[in-house]
Amino acid sequence: MKKQHSIVSIFILIIIVLLSVVAASIFVYSKIKPNTKTTETEQKPEKEDSMEEQMVSTIIEGEEYNTYRNEEYGFEFQFPKDWSIKEEVSGNYYSKITVFSSPGTIASTLSPAILVNVVLPEFADNTFNSLNKISSSIEVDGVKGIKYEYEYGGVPEIATVVSLSKYKIILGTIGVRTINNKLDFHEKEYYNFLNSFKFLR
Asked: Where are the transmembrane segments (predicted)?
């Protein structure tokens, strides 16, 4: 009988120890869980802020022309459907983003047919000061700007500079000499691009 009584005592002791462990676990879990939620809540705004800093751009496909739309900087433009587009977010202090578009499957960054560069105002103002250029007034989507026509390295270039909120935007085209020294200059496409350029207000 003593043996049976000691087995029951051991069994009761094991149950008490298990209940104590479960109770302690529940207590610890209830204390840790709110801290975890607070930490997640505190981290959420950081994630949202970093998502807001990421650029939002889309390509809207059309029949003859596609539309490039950049929500972050607030503009869009059309480019021929058989052209490619490349976007570079710059680590440069003066240049925020550059968009290149050229005929074919790879957009040229060296001599793009269409160039869009969002820059600080002082960069745009200083870039064209030293060039031998022809300048004229122009409007892009109702915003007044300056068009510069010049040659660089014997190749024609056109750049239109307009204000874009706290930045300026350079809308350009750069000619290129082919292997057989033929000039490839997309002036007609450039003016189509300027006519399609819209500010997202």
From this structure: 7-29
Both tokens assigned to 78: 């059309």
Residues in CB range of 97: below 8 A, 6 or more apart: 55, 70, 73, 87, 88, 89, 90, 116, 117, 118
* Residue with token string 């060039």: 131
Stated pTM of the model: 0.69
Question: What amino acid is encoded at 87 in this protein?
Answer: E
Residue 97: name the closest of 87, 109, 106 by CA: 87
* 144 burial level (CB within 10 Å; 0-12, 13-18, 19+): exposed
Q: Which residue has the tokens 């014997």?
A: 154
The number of helix segments (H) and strand segments (E) in the chain equals 3, 13
* Contact (CB, 8 A) for 115 and 173: yes
Quote the CA–CA distance of 78 and 134 in Å, as a whole number.
Answer: 26
Given its phi and psi angles, is residue 182 left (phi above 0), alpha (psi -120 to 50 degrees) or beta?
Answer: beta
Say if residue 11 is exposed, middle or buried (CB neighbours under 10 Å; 0-12, 13-18, 19+): exposed
What tokens were used for 85? 């587009």
Q: Report which of residues 9 and 131 the model is more confident about.
A: 131
Q: Tell me the mean pLDDT in the region 135-152.
A: 96
Do the Cβ atoms of 115 and 161 come closer than 8 Å? Answer: no
Strand partners, 198: 76
Hey, what are 133's tokens?
A: 């250029």
